[in-house]
Amino acid sequence: MTTTGTSTSTNRSGKGSFRRMDESSAEQWAEIGALTAQRQARVADRVLDMLQALGDITDGFAVDQLQHCLQTATRAEESGAEGEMVVAALCHDIGKYVSVPNHPRIAAEILRPYVSDEVFHVVSTHQDFQGRHYYHYFGGDPEARQRYRDEPWFDLGERFADEWDQASFDPGYPTQPLSHFEPLVRELFARPRSL
Ligand SMILES: [Fe+2]
């Protein structure tokens, strides 16, 4: 990246930046850091896009995955859950946009820089809590959740799964639309707490 006064637009397009990291400078990283922070709002845009796309996935359930996520978040909000837990409830199955088998961990990693460790672990392990109702149909242990029994977030994991997640496949439940949660989503993803 050049430091001449005519380089701003070039720098912003990245054309003046390094070709190899081992040739990079503090000024170049300052520019990249500033632009990345400036464009942080795109994270919420991507999350909202992925949630919208869950509307195309039903796979035999009574509601599509967007409706399931909206209903889970609606129940969490109605129960008085904190804002980050409501957004986590909204996003807990967002990993299904990419891959169902490891969807809890994909969702948890998307949330990780923006939520508490407790909420991260609840999302990351939620399938094992849900397993009480179906793991035995696939040869698994329906009480897989017990391996987390001593974790400080175990009670929240049970509340998430038993009160909000497993109950949210009801096409007749009065469920909030995605637009209702959009301000909360934008607020949460605007400020990463960690890398
Ligand atoms: Fe779910």
Number of strands: 0
Give the biggest sheet. none
Number of helices: 9
Helix content: 40-55%
* CA-atom Rg in angstroms: 20 Å
> Terminal Cα separation, in Å?
25 Å
Mean pLDDT comes to: 93
Shape: globular
Bound molecules: fe (ii) ion
Task: Characterise the protein shown here.
Helix 4 (65-78) runs antiparallel to helix 5 (83-91) and helix 4 (65-78) packs across helix 8. The longest helix is centred in the middle third of the chain and has 14 residues, at 65-78. The protein is mostly helical and 195 residues long. It starts with 7 loop residues before the first helix and ends in a 7-residue tail after the last helix. The protein is built from 9 helices and no strands. It binds fe (ii) ion. Fe (ii) ion binds at residues 68, 72, 92-93, 165. Fe (ii) ion binds next to helix 4.
Key traits:
195 residues, mainly alpha, 9 helices, 52% helix, 0% strand, disordered N terminus, binds fe (ii) ion
Structure in a nutshell:
By secondary structure, the chain is mainly alpha-helical. It has helices spanning 8-13, 26-38, 41-53, 65-78, 83-91, 103-111, 117-130, 154-165, 178-188. The chain is built from 9 helices and no strands.
Topology record:
Layout: H1 8-13, H2 26-38, H3 41-53, H4 65-78, H5 83-91, H6 103-111, H7 117-130, H8 154-165, H9 178-188
